[in-house]
Amino acid sequence: MRDLTRNDLGQLTLTLDDGSTHVGIVPVRAYPLSAPDEGVSLMNTDSHEVAWIDRLSDLPAAWRQLLEGELAVRELTPQVTALLEVSSFSTPSTWTVDTDRGRTSFVLKSEDDIRRLGDGRLLIHSAQGLNFGIADRTRLDKHSRKLLERFL
Question: What is the pTM (predicted TM-score) of this model?
């Protein structure tokens, strides 16, 4: 790895030794409970691994802070169980949702803030910097699926 930064949109940007740049990098711990400092995969927006980190503690402090901050947000992701309403079908819009942690509202700045993770899973990044997950969009109720489909 040559460089790891956060761009103006708040996305992690990774530049590899070969000069290739990957925007929207998502860090994923291999063993989040048993070895949180070991084995972190850096995934691109297509969910393909572009880099592997043996130990977070071996990284420069600035890179480690970026990754640990991103991991902290990612690992505490409320799961959306129902979409109750959206203020507008254009963005930005305010979404009111039920999650596994209770009812909340957040602002979706752009449709690009909804990331498809495969197998019906979605990761929604709010304007407030929080991530919300949907484990399987096909299992949402009909009203929720109808609202969600307007943004996909």
Answer: 0.56
